[in-house]
């Protein structure tokens, strides 16, 4: 499974580990993802999404219906 947020599209970034001697080696910064179930009352069903924790904060603030509407407008959810 890919490590991409299904609502925001966040994914891993690439950067460097930098040692004390300034030696650089490649590393990845993974997105902070969780698997979460949500109930959508308009459709009367449960959905499971793999989302980032920042997307979870957005859902808590604006609601799952508005977050899904915003994600569909951005092209992340079908």
UniProtKB/TrEMBL annotation:
UniProt keywords, alphabetically: Ribonucleoprotein, Ribosomal protein
InterPro entries: Bacterial_rp_bL28 (IPR050096), Ribosomal_bL28 (IPR026569), Ribosomal_bL28/bL31-like_sf (IPR034704), Ribosomal_bL28_bact-type (IPR001383), Ribosomal_bL28_sf (IPR037147)
Domain of life: Bacteria
GO cellular-component term (any): ribosome
Pfam family for this entry, one: Ribosomal_L28
Protein's UniProt keywords contain Ribosomal protein: yes
Family membership: Belongs to the bacterial ribosomal protein bL28 family.
NCBIfam families associated with the record: L28
Protein name per the record: Large ribosomal subunit protein bL28
Species annotation: Olleya sediminilitoris
Upper classification of the organism: Bacteria, Pseudomonadati, Bacteroidota, Flavobacteriia, Flavobacteriales
Gene it is expressed from: rpmB
């Amino acid at each position: 499974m890919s490590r991409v947020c299904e609502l925001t599209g966040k994914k891993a970034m690439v950067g460097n580990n930098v040692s004390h001697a300034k030696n650089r080696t490649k590393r990845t910064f993974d997105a902070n993802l969780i698997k979460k179930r949500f109930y959508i009352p308009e459709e009367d069903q449960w959905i499971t999404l793999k989302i980032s924790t920042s997307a979870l904060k957005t859902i808590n603030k604006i609601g799952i219906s508005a977050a899904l509407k915003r994600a569909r407008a951005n092209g992340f959810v079908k």
